[in-house]
Specification:
about 475 residues; Spore Coat Polysaccharide Biosynthesis Protein SpsA, Chain A; Rossmann fold; 2 domains; 5-stranded parallel sheet; about 15% strand
């Protein structure tokens, strides 16, 4: 049996792809390595960094090709799906089956994923979404009989949503945001399922699971299923998806995970918003032994007392079962409370650090104004309560400048009063390995096995 495993991807999924390749290898089981071809289809309109492409192409049995039609993440189009069907047909020539995986999916057993088609006359094997009244294969993992792919590609010529009655399916799918007249771009899994029904049966024999519960151990999540989707919800608990995939590799191979021998070091990040806080949190959370969240507690008002000892303890307690070496949170709301945190840490000799993020002032103000879109800068849903006072009736640029200057003044005061435990970083310096290593060293990230998958990616819309 020969397989081609295909993943469609784009720039924001850079950190997921090498772990995906490793997990595909492990899931191959008894299938000879030379009989499992891996193809990564990169959206050239939102491309992976060249460094990532080079690393993937260096892997034995891995090919990276570019798509030309804009994939737009999950907001796909009939044109994209037509190109995808054609690409899968060409890339899988000589194979018996094609397994399509999302980059944030962990295949447990390729043989099990293919088994429904080996034992049945169906053309596509997958599993239906829970809670849906209409059956269609879930896109994060399905298997296609390779012999029908050229027929798919031919049938896609000139096809559109109306031809396959996709709109009717969407009206019946149980989704929280769906309602009468619910309008959503064509989704790949639903489209291909309906397309497959023109040539044969869609078999629901693959077992899949979403992994989005922080209390569930990863190995437990893999039990009894053929594939696990690392859901976005894991990021709310500091379990950045690339890190979870890396953990699965370590667990499967018996490699030692990075664990701390005592209380974890704690690092908090602050800034104005629109300055790279989400990027910094992702960068840190990808590192072995590090669990750093982004805005874990959401809004923390300036005038709400924050008990520093409790806040530090909470961040350690939340992740203690994983014995991390470094924990923390990056949150613009902590800017006003950082002084209390550092004063407490100094008083008890605790190892806590705070970093502040800055970027070019004019660019920052312009980003805040653009993000405000007619409302008070960063003021939606009460977030204004976390910011310095400003005149809500003033010109948007004046308001944004007041926010930036007020928060920067607080950050500059921290640098003067806590030179050993606070440091400001320009986000522009965190886009090359030398600058990132300096940032990691200061935060307390272990030097071994550092991950640089995000380095070189656009930050705040800039490379």
């Amino acid at each position: 049996m020969k397989l081609t495993v295909i993943a469609f991807t784009y720039g924001r999924e850079t950190g997921l792809l090498l772990p995906l390749v490793r997990n595909i290898r492990r899931a191959s089981g008894e299938i000879p390595a030379e009989d499992v071809r891996i193809c990564i289809i990169n959206d050239a309109n939102a491309s992976l960094p060249q460094e990532t492409i080079d690393l993937l192409n260096a892997e034995v049995g891995v090919t990276v090709v570019n798509s030309t039609v804009d994939r737009r993440g999950n907001l796909r189009s009939a044109e994209f799906i037509a190109e995808a069907a054609g690409a899968m047909a060409v890339l899988s020539e000589g194979s018996d089956y094609v397994v399509k995986l999302d980059p944030d999916t962990v295949p447990v057993s390729l043989e099990s994923i293919v088994k429904p088609l080996v034992e049945d006359e169906g053309v596509v094997a997958s599993f239906p979404p829970s809670g849906a009244e209409v059956e269609f294969g879930m896109g994060f993992c399905y298997c296609i009989r390779r012999s029908v792919l050229p027929l798919f590609a031919e049938a896609m010529e000139g096809i559109d949503a109306a031809t396959l009655d996709i709109a009717m399916d969407y009206a019946r799918v149980s989704m929280p945001s769906a309602g009468p007249g619910y309008n959503f771009p064509i989704r790949e899994d639903m489209f291909l399922s309906r397309l497959a029904m023109r040539f044969g049966e869609v078999v629901f024999g693959v077992k899949g699971r979403y992994f989005d519960e922080p209390a569930v151990e990863i190995e437990t999540a893999k039990a009894g299923v053929d594939a696990v989707l690392i859901g976005p919800a894991v990021m709310s608990y500091g379990r950045e998806r690339a890190g979870v995939l890396a953990e699965l590799i370590a667990g499967a191979s018996g490699e030692a995970s990075v664990v701390g021998e005592g209380p974890a070091k704690v690092v908090f990040g602050i800034g104005t918003g629109y300055c790279g806080t989400a990027y910094a949190a992702r960068l840190l959370s990808q590192q072995p032994g590090c669990v750093v969240t982004h805005e874990m507690a959401g809004l923390i008002a300036r005038d709400k007392p924050l008990v520093a000892a409790s806040w530090i303890r909470k961040n350690r307690k939340l992740h203690e079962s994983r014995s991390p070496v470094l924990v923390g949170d990056v949150n613009l709301c902590l800017t006003h409370h950082a002084r209390a945190i550092l004063e407490h840490a100094a008083s008890v000799g605790d190892e806590v650090r705070v970093f502040g993020l800055k970027r070019d002032r004019d660019e920052l103000i312009a980003s805040i104004v653009a993000g405000a879109a007619g409302r008070s800068p960063i003021g939606l849903h009460g977030w204004r309560r976390a910011l310095p006072d400003y005149d809500a009736e003033a010109d948007p640029e004046v308001m944004a400048a007041a926010v930036v200057d007020g928060m920067w003044a607080e950050m500059d005061a921290l640098a003067e009063d806590f030179p050993e435990s606070y440091r400001a970083f320009d986000i522009a310096d965190l886009n090359d390995q030398a600058g990132v290593d300096e940032f990691f060293d200061w935060c307390g990230v272990p030097a071994a096995n550092r991950v640089y998958a995000l380095v070189g990616m656009p930050i705040n819309g800039k490379s």
